[in-house]
Amino acid sequence: MQLTHDQNQFSKRQFPITIVCDTITSPANVGAIFRAADAFGVEKVMFCGGIPDFGKRMRKTSRSTEQYVPFEVTQEETLQAVEKLKEEGYTICAVEITANSVPLNKVNFKDFAKVALVLGAENFGVNNAVLQISDVVTHITMYGNNSSMNVAQALTIALYESTNALG
Q: Could you tell me which residue ranges the tRNA/rRNA methyltransferase SpoU type domain spans (predicted)?
């Protein structure tokens, strides 16, 4: 028998993870990012390099989780926001496939006190300057023909891996 939301037995928990969105503005993706952030107990979501669409489509996709997940829309470029997080002791973990990226399941998140997961815009990925200062650049191993996936789906996989490791 399927449980209702009121019957679920999940323990509420918050992890020392901040999501940094590098020019992600699509309402469907923004809504899905909020929903994943809530599901995995993320401490904060930051939107950099563009103002996201917080309209009806975003609210429908998020299922109102934007009301519970702390977030910040900054006028700073992503690089400046990431530099500040690095100064605050965050390990900068960019989710992007590059010549030197490591598979996500090989990243030892237990080694990090605080993590900033950086995700890039739907068409351009994570800014190269941000990749250069990242402590870790990781990718999701895929087995089909395509070499990328939707940013919200990639985030969900990254949050599943990281929160399971942080336990």
A: 17-160
